Backbone:
């Protein structure tokens, strides 16, 4: 009997994405699976039920959760919903089991084979499955659009009959995937763009997108391409120079996040107070506490004349393309263990072994 795959309808407030598109459903069916999609699962991302049916899926209601062998989601189901899943079923998504003891307990009590995709090793082979990167790209793009909307000024230079308008000065803090996308987007909008990261090797990436690398004179270069911890003296010097630089910046986009840990505090309250009135800070790291001390997750506030926005779940704002990328990531991961209509887990494969939760040693 073919394995039964169920695409869940997201229940988290404001979540518009979906874990499979008609394109990836067709591929799952081609791999021999019986695919069911909860009614309305893709509607907020522009994928109607009929499109899934045309791709070979069956439309299902909540009762299908108790029969499914493999369930695909974006955000984790609530603990009460996990308790309704089939004993020993597999669950793939951005599950963050360590973030909620009730969720972790529910997963373990049902013997769920969980694959939190945020645990996926960051290797070359895993790039096609890397949900953190694909969703961060959308988040970086949306963060700059929010900044442009909030800013009381043009981003590009304009020459008008009323005189010349100088371009906005935009600083992007953090040069990971989200930061690089933010730099590219701000540059396309015509701003004068700088990028800052504690890793000096990001200079080339920032400059390749047309940005200028902000060198604060303190290098955190460590071994193996990782940043090292700054000394107290180095950090104080870095903070002093950054505070001075921010006085001339119009827009700051903060993107420095560390998976599974609180976001590092980079922009202090004193720095915000030193910025020009009318300046804007968009803190993409708000979901994990924010890079700015003044950030209030989920809110847009004014602090001493500076607008500070802490938007949440930015990737969901671009639900169509975010879902397309996420669904392809998920399918590429599932293809590691779904073959000929059956599930088969090769625990010698590090992508499966290191993503699995709980790890075998911790199981039971």
Residues:
């Amino acid at each position: 009997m073919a394995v039964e795959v169920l695409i869940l309808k997201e229940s988290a407030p404001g979540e518009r994405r979906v874990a499979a598109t008609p394109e990836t459903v067709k591929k799952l069916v081609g791999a021999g699976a019986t695919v069911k999609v909860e009614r309305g699962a893709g509607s907020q991302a522009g994928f109607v039920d009929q499109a899934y049916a045309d791709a070979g899926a069956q439309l299902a209601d909540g009762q299908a959760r108790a029969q499914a062998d493999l369930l695909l989601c974006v955000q984790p189901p609530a603990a009460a919903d996990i308790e309704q899943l089939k004993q020993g079923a597999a669950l793939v998504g951005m599950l963050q089991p360590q973030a909620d003891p009730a969720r972790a307990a529910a997963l373990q009590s049902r013997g769920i084979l969980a694959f939190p995709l945020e645990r996926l090793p960051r290797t070359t082979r895993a790039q096609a499955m890397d949900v953190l990167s694909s969703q961060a790209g959308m988040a970086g793009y949306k963060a700059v659009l929010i900044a442009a909307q909030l800013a009381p000024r043009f981003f590009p230079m304009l020459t008008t009959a009323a005189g010349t308008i100088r371009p906005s000065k935009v600083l992007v803090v953090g040069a990971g995937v989200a930061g690089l996308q933010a730099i590219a987007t701000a540059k396309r909008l015509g701003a004068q763009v700088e990028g800052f990261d504690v890793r000096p090797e990001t200079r080339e990436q920032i400059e390749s997108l047309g940005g200028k690398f902000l060198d604060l004179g303190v290098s955190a270069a460590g071994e193996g391409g990782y940043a090292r911890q700054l000394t107290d003296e180095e950090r104080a010097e870095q903070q002093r120079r950054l505070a001075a630089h921010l006085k001339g910046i119009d827009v700051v986009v903060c993107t420095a996040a560390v998976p599974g840990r609180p976001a590092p505090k980079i922009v202090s309250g004193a720095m915000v107070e030193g910025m020009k009135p009318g300046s804007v800070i968009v803190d993409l790291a708000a979901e994990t506490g924010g890079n700015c001390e003044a950030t209030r997750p989920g809110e847009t506030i004014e602090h001493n004349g500076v607008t500070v926005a802490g938007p949440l779940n930015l990737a969901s704002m671009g639900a169509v393309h975010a879902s397309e990328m996420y669904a392809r990531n998920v399918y590429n991961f599932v293809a590691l263990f779904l073959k000929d209509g059956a599930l088969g887990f090769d625990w010698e494969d590090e992508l499966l072994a290191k993503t699995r939760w709980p790890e075998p040693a911790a199981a039971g």
User: Anything to note?
Assistant: The chain is about 30% helix and 15% strand. Residues 131-150 form the longest helix (20 residues).
